[in-house]
Amino acid sequence: MQSKVVSNMAINSPFNKSTPTSYKTTTKKSNRVTTLVGQQPISAVIAHPLPPKVTHSMPLEKKELFRSLESWASNSILPLLKPVEKSWQPIEFLPDPSQPFGDFTDEVRALRGRTANLPDEYFVVLVGDMITEDALPTYETFINTLDGVRDETGASPSPWATWTRTWTAEENRHGDLLRTYLYLSGRVDMLKIEKTIQYLIGSGMDPGTENNPYMGFVYTSFQERATFISHGNTARLAQKGGDPLLAKICGTIASDEKRHENAYARIVEKLLEVDTNEAMLAIGEMMRKKITMPAYLMYDGEDPSLFDNFSAVAQRLGVYTAHDYADILEFFIGKWKLEKLTIGLNGEGRRAQDFICGLPLRIRKFQERADERAKKMMTRSVKFSWIFNKEVTL
Ligand SMILES: [Fe+2]
Ligand SMILES: [Fe+2]
């Protein structure tokens, strides 16, 4: 039996069909061969990345372009960060441990009362989201792989490095808050969750961005919007399930993600303005590879399909789905006005443009067929260690 969301994207994927064969390098061809040979059934939402093939794909002289954009980044990107003194902190949403012990335990009891009616499957998704947030060291490491924008010293004053450190500091609150809330709820197995986090940070991730900031910022734009959507949906479900404070927490995190999405999308917009062809090729290349979810290597020491199973539950609850992926792509095609761009594109750039702009429709058709097939399959249940090995329907 197969998971309902599982589909053999490796072969039939709309990402590969009609893909231009040469709008950049021959690497795509060899990657595609690897994909076909691999033939791994993978989730329509997440798709594991291809083996790393290319590093440092941005020509070194383009580092100069990022240097020339530093004052623009200072004026247009850094203001999208929030000063610490104006930022929320996790403790503001949590029982205050400095109050008299009885008052503290009353608050914990109230928290447990609110979470009591949330279903186990909701906790699977919230835990998966929290673990994804908690693997933050991996994401800062990833951004610092990008040529021309990495933090060269660890405390570099460059606006790119300043952004990355301050973004990380903002993001750090997300995992902390969700983790503590989940801990206090008593509904989840913290030992298994903590092991998963340790495994995940140890495994890292390879989003296939080739040390290339053009691709890197396409990836982060997508990821921030994906997390904006999924935290928004966990907020909605928490409200429906009787926990307005958890809804507020998820909504507050979602609004941070939205602000971060705006920053990354603004960078891609600027790259499209100053280096249209290279930026279009980078978007096309990331779309061809697919945007992988950052926690695709998650493991709890027990379930080798943990990420696929978590993704299947997220898809079934409507927290993050293949349709959301198509929506995100459509959103950015509109925001970046990709269909309308004509100046500055060469033949490869135009082929990438055609591929990108035609992709949402192909993803939707592909997903409709996958949904039809899934309806005919039997449902199955899987045990999640995070919720004390209780079974959840995929
Ligand atoms: Fe986050
Ligand atoms: Fe984020």
From TrEMBL:
Could you give the cofactor binding note from the entry? Binds 2 iron ions per subunit.
GO cellular component labels: chloroplast stroma
The prosthetic group or cofactor this protein requires is:
Fe cation; Fe(2+)
Q: Where does Fe cation 1 bind?
A: E133, E171, H174, E257
Keyword Transit peptide applies: yes
In the record, biological process GO terms are: fatty acid biosynthetic process
Record's keyword annotation contains Cell wall biogenesis/degradation: no
Any Pfam family hit: FA_desaturase_2
Q: Name one GO molecular function term.
A: stearoyl-[ACP] desaturase activity
- Residues binding Fe cation 2 are E171, E224, E257, H260
- PROSITE patterns linked to this entry: FATTY_ACID_DESATUR_2
Annotated localization: Plastid, Chloroplast
Q: What is its main location?
A: plastid
Q: Which residues form a coiled coil?
A: none
Entry EC no(s): 1.14.19.-
What keywords does the record list, in alphabetical order? Chloroplast, Fatty acid biosynthesis, Fatty acid metabolism, Iron, Lipid biosynthesis, Lipid metabolism, Metal-binding, Oxidoreductase, Plastid, Transit peptide
Summarize the protein's role. Answer: Introduction of a cis double bond between carbons of the acyl chain.
How does the record describe its quaternary structure? Homodimer.
Family assignment from sequence similarity: Belongs to the fatty acid desaturase type 2 family.
Q: What is this protein called?
A: Acyl-[acyl-carrier-protein] desaturase
